[in-house]
Specification:
The chain is mainly beta and about 190 residues long. It has two helices and twelve strands, in the order E-H-E-E-E-E-E-E-E-E-E-H-E-E.
């Protein structure tokens, strides 16, 4: 297993997503966005440190592009991820994750939203997911299009603890560094 460190930058909140989650990417979304150890107990809402309050964003886009061989038009990027945390001063949070993958004319998009309480202690924070939603859109397989709430089990699985640190990057911007995501080999 390897450790992943993500550096999150403070950002304005984007508009609320209004799309879906492909069955094939549910596991990927959970691994990419919710790594860390399970929280021992449900944290009660309490104040969030002022230095963390606000919106934090992390994302990547693949360097691979697709072009239509017949028309020569740009067909899109191969894949990408955007993950956002919004920490409120009252001890609540929202996490929004967007993943997509594309191969020529087929595009799969996944949206995951989780809301709940968060407790910061020392160099870690524990999330307790109270509500959540999965959405999926697949342009080549309509059977993968859905929009549904998280189950009790899925909310429990995403209620996790993360280590964190606030840093300043080379450009002088404040970043939120989240560590502890663990990736296991696929079956």
């Amino acid at each position: 297993m390897s450790r992943l460190t993500e550096r999150w930058k403070r950002s304005p909140p984007p508009p609320a997503p209004s799309v879906s989650l492909a069955a094939a990417l549910v596991a990927l979304a959970a691994l990419a966005a919710a790594g860390g150890a399970h929280a021992a107990a449900t944290p009660a809402a309490e104040p969030v440190p002022a230095t963390v309050v606000g919106s934090w964003w992390y994302g990547i886009v693949a360097p691979t592009d697709f072009w239509d061989d017949h028309t020569g038009r740009y067909a899109g990027n191969a894949y990408g991820i955007s993950d956002q945390y919004v920490f409120a001063s009252d001890g609540t949070y929202t996490q929004r994750t967007y993943l997509y993958t594309q191969a020529y004319q087929c595009r799969t998009q996944v949206w995951v939203e989780a809301r709940g309480t968060v407790r910061f202690a020392g160099a870690s924070f524990a999330k307790a997911v109270q509500t959540g939603r999965f959405r999926s859109r697949d342009t080549c397989a309509a059977s993968r299009n859905f929009d549904r709430p998280m189950t009790d089990r899925e909310r429990a699985d995403r209620s996790r603890s993360h280590e964190y640190a606030l840093r300043t990057d080379a450009a002088g911007a404040r970043t939120l560094q989240i560590t502890g995501a663990r990736y296991a080999p696929a079956d």
